[in-house]
Amino acid sequence: MNAIFLAIVVVAFGTAAWREFFAVAVAGAPSPMQALSAATIASATDAITLALGLVGAMALFLGLMKVAEAGGLLTILARLIRPLMTRLFRDVPPEHPAMGAMVLNLSANALGLGNAATPFGIRAMQELDRLNPRPGTATDAMALFLAINTSSITLLPTAVIALRASAGSSDPAGILPTTLFASLCGTVAAVATAFALARFFPVNPDDGATPPARTTASRGGGAGVAVDASKAGAHAAGCAAGADDSTALANDSAAGATAYPLWASVLALAALAALVPVTVAWGRTISPWIVPALVAGFLCFGLLRGVRVYESFVEGAKDGFEVAVRIIPYLVAILVAIGMLRASGALDAIVGAIGGFTARFGLPAEALPMALLRPLSGSGAYGVMASIIADPATGPDSYVGYLVSTLQGSSETTFYVLAVYFGAVQVRRVRHTLAAALTADFVAVVAAVAACRYVFG
């Protein structure tokens, strides 16, 4: 991330400087350096606004997570899909709360619930960090989880379908099969790349080394590890939030808890697979029900399990503000860099240079900014998609309209995800995470082009 961050800023500055001296000035328009300066300040302000805007959603869904955890839902989910998760996340104990939290995050992403997926993902990262022997350095499990997260299988791209419907599409849910195919290919690529690259990015013995002032904190099942005193505060919220779960996990292990029978796991995976045709056939009908059903379902589950749902919800919601504040510096860094890249004209120059080449393979110049912006800026990519499908000359039901909609629905804002999730647990050395995630993004773009050319070309 250090090299990527510096490269984006340097390229943006260099492009703006070149345009300042050599480009023809437009009467009444700000100079390139003025535009770059304004974009830098505006992007920093937007980062604060974005972080504060996440507080409400994080408080809501972290509160629901606490109710689910107190009722044992995460352990139930982990046991149901243990055959799959234990093969993917070999370093995570089968019934650790991280397993259930990851399942909830990936499920929320699959249903297009961005606001719900983020708090679930942050909780999963907090749980994984309690298993991390070197705070500040990403583990293999963290790298794999985030690589999958940035390309997770999408069954119902709710926001994209809604935008297509508002743009007058006669078939707003027509992108479901292409989105599913592209996101599936991206997920397979994420898993394969994360496993392949892990051996080339070993954890050095001195990673996570701390100065003499140290304190001992309890992580995971209660084993004490030494962590830097300055990091104790950053990890305290996560450790406190998961203390009850760690105790529950220890009690389950002591009682000899095991996975559910194989038939139960097979049935659960079959039910998950059955969601594919269901979302294709009735996606628009069920999408408004998802969030209300999620809230009601979690609370009713907690009530049936004897949980004091109000107290547990409030306890979990308290973490929302703390997490939002903790990720602000990471958001400022990445959003400022991306804002500078766009304002400098570097992105437009890249599109102009390679647009003619990519058009030969089914990625027209009109859709190329979408493919380039998607890993960098969610709002930027969403704006590009909205402008393309709202253009009467293109429309939502043209090949380009279907393609940009599929790109939006089948990939994630990689740099944002890494900044938020790693920022929540103060991880600075990301190892092979970024390479695996960008590989998955590239494969998803290629798969989206191939699927759209086959179905709509």
Task: Please provide a written account of the structure.
This protein has 457 residues and is mainly alpha-helical. The protein is built from 21 helices and two strands. The chain has a two-stranded antiparallel ribbon. Helix 1 runs parallel beside helix 15, helix 15 packs antiparallel against helix 20 and helix 19 runs antiparallel to helix 21.
List keywords for this structure.
2 strands; mainly alpha; two-stranded antiparallel sheet
Helix content: over 70%
Main β-sheet description: 2 strands, antiparallel
Strand residues, percent: under 5%
Instruction: Give the rounded overall mean pLDDT.
Output: 77
Q: How far do the termini sit from each other?
A: 37 Å
Encode the helix/strand succession as letters. HHHHHHHHHEEHHHHHHHHHHHH
- Structural class by SSE content: mainly alpha
Runs in which pLDDT lies below 50 for 5 or more consecutive residues are 208-257
Radius of gyration using CA atoms only: 22 Å
Shape: globular
Helices and strands in order:
Elements (H helix, E strand, L loop, with lengths): L1 H21 L9 H40 L1 H8 L1 H7 L8 H14 L3 H16 L10 H10 L8 H9 L9 H23 L15 E6 L3 E6 H13 L1 H12 L7 H25 L3 H15 L4 H18 L1 H17 L1 H14 L8 H6 L4 H13 L8 H12 L3 H11 L8 H23 L2
Antiparallel strand pairs: 1-2
Helix pairs in contact: 1-15, 2-6, 2-13, 2-14, 2-15, 3-5, 5-6, 6-20, 7-9, 7-21, 8-19, 9-19, 9-21, 10-14, 15-20, 18-19, 19-21
